[in-house]
Write a structure and sequence with these properties.
The strands form four sheets. A three-stranded antiparallel sheet has the order 1-2-3, covered by helices on one side. A three-stranded mixed sheet has the order 5-7-8, with helices on one face. Strands 9-10-11 form a three-stranded parallel sheet, with helices on one face. It is α/β, with parallel strands linked by helices. The longest helix has 51 residues. Helix 11 links the parallel strand 10 and strand 11.
Amino acid sequence: MSEMHGTIEVDDGPYYYLLEKCISRGKPVIVASFMDDTYASEFRSSLIDSTVYVMVVAFSLILMILMIWAFSIIHPLNQIRVYISQIKQGKDVELNIKREDEIGEVARELISMKEELSKQQNAKEEMIHNISHDLKTPIATIKSYSESIKDGIYPYGDLESSVDVILNNAQRLEDKVHSLLYLNRIEYLITTDAEGVVTNMKEVVEQVVLNSAVIDPDIRLITDVEEVFFDGLLEGWRVAIENIMENAFRYAKTYIKIVVRENDIRIYNDGPKMPEDRIETLIQPLNGGVELGDYLETGYFEQEMDKSVATTCIEEIWNEFPSMTQYEVRSALAKCGLTTKHIESKVKVLSGGEQAKVRLCKLINKPTNILLLDEPTNHLDVDAKSELKRALSEYKGSILMVCHEPEFYDRLATDVWDCSQWSTRI
């Protein structure tokens, strides 16, 4: 063996030795090395001490990092807690937390909520002020006139005129109370969760008719109601139908009719029709908007032509495109399937399909990059529909189309929106 090692016991303890055979000055020699266990014990103790020290330092660092992290969360949460508490007490406070994490997002939402609450509080105070002012005058008038009449004095000349003043002011009070009840009802409907709630519309209509019968006994209330169920709260549907009925009583001559079918409510009367130009101004959007892009050229195909149009087909196209020659106008109309007889006739005497071809002629000769088509297939025969579909498939711009014929827009439309699934018709 060239090497041998082991342990030997002596009086003062164990010794470790190593014997190694080697050559020194050309002669074989054996080198002996030995040591006691003091070094091993010291090394082992030093290693343990170093390991414990490293672990203590690492633990301390981790603990410190956790404390800093916890403080970074607890401190803003305490700020938020104090902020909410002070808002509950009606104090005007500010929350200064500038973070981009979830806590910062919560803080921004709380600030937004406080601003909205402040707006609502200001609106409520202003409304109360206005209400108190509006109620004060008629109450004072009624009280004053009543005391005068009781004393035999007629402030407005005679008894009838003085009582009329009292009745007028009483009506003002009634209107104001009605408005307040309406606002309170609207707020209730907004804050009530109606998800998953359905209402028996037959019961609603019967209740509304029963309550409305005394408004004007001369108006006959006709109902044609199936037992169907609509999504939403009973109170919400009752308010909606009552409001429509209240308006219908203002214009009805002899009757008001209510028809209820699946996903369909219709309320109409025999009163005068509302002018079409006024309808457009009645309902304004609550929010949202439309912005037209640059270089947008829109073409619109209306479902029906204005019945008051007194021009011929040639004149109709010429008015739209004054730079065209008569030959060009006739050619354009002929390409849309109109004969010479049609071309020289007045538009209003043409059939629905022939009028549609005139409107299509105006549309295809106008440079556009977006088309708005309102029921373009109405009154068209099979050949005309096929030709229209071919032309639309070759159109390079965008198309927004209202159509009730799936076989027409099939393989033409990239997106189809089924509007019947969005709401209930009233």
